[in-house]
Every structure is written in structure tokens, then in C-alpha cells.
Design goal:
Mean pLDDT: 84
Number of domains: 1
Structural class: alpha+beta
Distance between the termini: 12 Å
Order of helices and strands: EHEEH
Radius of gyration: 11 Å
Strand order of the largest sheet: 1-3-2
Low-confidence stretches: none
Shape: globular
Strand content: 15-25%
């Protein structure tokens, strides 16, 4: 999901599991301006044309170690 921040083209993800880590990552990428559209219960389209610098929510970042992957993009 973090790799979606590296392109301004829409990215479609299939077989997205409905688990806390994934939902927390969704909240993190939305906090920097990504748009997440649910195409089906396990399919999302992520568009990142309007990213903005943001301070990530420290409480949310503590939930998942993968939050560091958002720092680069």
C-alpha cells in the first residue's frame, strides 16, 4: 500500500485482507492525501494525485511497524 504513494496513477489492489494492520495503513495513507475507493470487499483503488506533507499520527504509527514506509514518499 505504501508503494502506491510513489505514483500519481491509480493503483488497484486485489485480495486486500480485512485486518487491523491494513486498515491502519489505509488511515495513514489517507492522512497524507491518498484517496481509497472500495471497488469490492477485498478490492481497492488508491489514487495519490494530491499528496501533501503531513505529520503522521504517532498513536496510529505505533500500531504498525510498516508506517515507516510512508516516510520516504
Amino acid at each position: 500500500m505504501a508503494a502506491c504513494l510513489l505514483t500519481d496513477e491509480p493503483v488497484t489492489l486485489l485480495n486486500v485482507p480485512n485486518i487491523r494492520d491494513v486498515l491502519d495503513m489505509r488511515r495513514l495513507i489517507e492522512s497524507v492525501g491518498a484517496q481509497v475507493e472500495e471497488l469490492a470487499p477485498t478490492a481497492w483503488r488508491i489514487t495519490t494525485r494530491t499528496l501533501r506533507p503531513a505529520d503522521l499520527d504517532p498513536d496510529l504509527c505505533r500500531h504498525i511497524r510498516a508506517s515507516i514506509l510512508i516516510a520516504g514518499p
